[in-house]
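Subject: for your reference before the review

Hello V.,

The reviewers asked for a structural picture of the protein, and I figured it would be easier to keep everything in one thread rather than splitting it across files. Below is the amino acid sequence we used in the manuscript, unchanged from the supplementary table.
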Amino acid sequence: MSIVELATRAKEASLKLQGLSEEMRLTALDAMSKALLTHKNEILSENQKDLDEARKNNLSASMVDRLTLSAKSIQDLAAMCVSVANQKQVVGMVVESHTRADGLLVQKQRIPLGVIGMIFESRPNVVVDGAALAIKSGNAIILKGGKEAQYSNRKLFEIIHHSTASVLPEGSVSLIETREDVAEILKLDQYIDLMVPRGGSALIQYVKANATMPVVAHDKGLCHLYVHADCEVDAEAIVLNAKTQRPGVCNALETLVLHEKFPHNEAILSALKSAGVEIKHPATEEDYATEWLDKKISIKIVSNHLEAIEHIKKYSSHHTEAILAKDPKVIEEFLNSLDASCIAINASTRFNDGGELGLGAELGISTSKLHAYGPMGASEMTTTRFIVTGDGHIRK
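And here is what came back from the structure prediction:
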């Protein structure tokens, strides 16, 4: 099948998906969840092929981490499908309503975007996340994963396709695999309503430069955490969680900003070293501009919160910024001075995640502002339209 034929089929499916009942969406998600568990060993076998190739090609530890599936992660994916199913209905819901003085009823209704294209790297779990959220939000989705996860992606797509075939229109979920496919699909704005790139800067810039349809980018996560002098929460525990729980993900801490008068600075640095983190202090301009995705961290010492804010402004990727402080005025100034999809107050940067924020899952974390900002759940994959109901009304 050609890419144009595949996109045409997805467009046709999207028109049918909008009218699919919520009960049918839930049936499809339940079938996906059960199929993932039934075929767990097959998934792990295919994932092992990808891991063997990754090690043969000397991919980084963080890349291998993002690529790895386990029995637990498959169980988590199955649970995610159930969690997404249990989210509030979004398709067809009336979110605003008012009646004019002349009796004309004006309503705003939530509807799918249509066809979403998603290009991503490394993480095979995104195949399931994307498919589940597309089903819940009534969209057709075309997925393109990285070649480093080709065996895993193919198997997961196969499972999704077969488990939902009796419920969803043909073409609801599609998979493409080559760079040539990507180049072609970016031209098909007459069929695809939104493109979502999720990966490294090179991928993001390529899609932005070549896509003919709107793009919502999941760009790099150069996340900062500022510890103010009056911090009373356990800064050491939060910093370690933000940096070391999973260093290779986009909401992991990359630059730690410390107030020079915070009394536990040395203890925090010592704890990071003990955890195997390479500390960049003093850090260079290049260090501050680097998303490490590894057990490395840049350190910045400041004399006040305004200096911290200015440093973060300079290097922020608009993903996640955090502050540990007591003074509400300092917190408020931090909140109002920085532009990021999520600001964490006295908490780890690791909470900027669709599952953690109650969305069930995420298509990605948008660092754009249009059409969404932050984790994209089912609701963020919809738009609204007006429905105007009259009784023979005419405009005067």
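For the response letter, the relevant points are probably these. The longest strand covers residues 105-112. Residues 3-216+376-389 form a domain with the Aldehyde Dehydrogenase; Chain A, domain 1 fold (CATH 3.40.605.10).

Happy to draft the paragraph if you're swamped.

O.
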